[in-house]
Amino acid sequence: MSSALEFDPELELRISDTALTFEYGLGMFGPQPEMRRLDAIRPSLLDPHCAGPDPVYGIAMDIGREQDRRSLERRMLLFGAVIYAAGSLGDEPVRSQGHVHAIAAHSGWSPPEIFEIWSGTAIIYAQERAADDPGRCIAITARAGDQVIVAPGWAHCVINADRHRRMAFGAWCDRQYGFDYSGVRAHRGLAWFPKFGLNDAIEWTSNPHYMNRALEQRSPRAYPELGLKGGRSLYRQYLDDPESVMFVPEPGRAANEWPSFTP
Question: Measuring CA to CA, how many Å separate 236 from each of 68, 150, 207, 242?
Fold first, then answer.
């Protein structure tokens, strides 16, 4: 059995009711999701010895319509789909590892990423650097249909903010994607740890291995400076105007925006 997503990504895609997997419809391509195990997440957690769902999430990198495959490959674009388990990791929400995008050889940039929430409630947490001084630290609560951009070089993770249900999202990524965990692991996580507090509200604990920086919490915003148009699915925006998302594989197109960019 499978279920429809809360937000329509305008792809023939459903989520399994029994596993952290997707079902592809007619004319779609995509792999079976890779399972991310709890042991891989532990280095990013406040309590690395906690118990929780295992696998934590399933990730399918490179999905789309078969008729678009060659265009996506030529443009160095890749669309990913991710589904998170319900539950918690001890007192912490289900989440990904903190990481920075590795530099892509074809562009020489650490690529940005565009997230689109499909079901559930997510928090995209991002900080400017995985260094002693993390710079700006921002946590954005996003719901079905919301879109969030993380800039080149920012360390980040995605969090399932509701322990009672699964969460799913899609993302435009660089085809030469890679993950650098070194800075985050050297600091035993990101600069802020989310935890479930009273009535399952998300509370934040600072990581003492960084300089103390304030945490900004807010809702998603629009991105007119990058040409992204809200109100349409990310995949539809690509179909209507492929150039609108080309700042992902070619970050140099927005080089003047990134130094002061706010997710």
Answer: 12, 20, 39, 9
Strand partners for 53: none
* pTM over the 0.90 mark: yes
* CA 17/CA 2 separation, integer angstroms: 5
CA distance 174 to 251: 10
Domain ranges of the chain: 2-260
The pLDDT tens digits of the residues spanning 33-66 come to 999 999 999 999 999 999 999 999 999 999 999 9
Query: pLDDT (tens digit, 9 = 90+) per residue, 81-108?
Result: 999 999 999 999 999 999 999 999 999 9
Separation in Å, CA 125 to CA 6, 71, 139, 244, 263:
22, 31, 4, 24, 9
Return the CATH number of 2-260, one of 3.40.50.2000, 2.60.120.10, 3.20.20.150, 3.30.390.10.
Answer: 2.60.120.10
Q: What is the pLDDT of residues 166-212, one digit of tens each?
A: 999 999 999 999 999 999 999 999 999 999 999 999 999 999 999 99
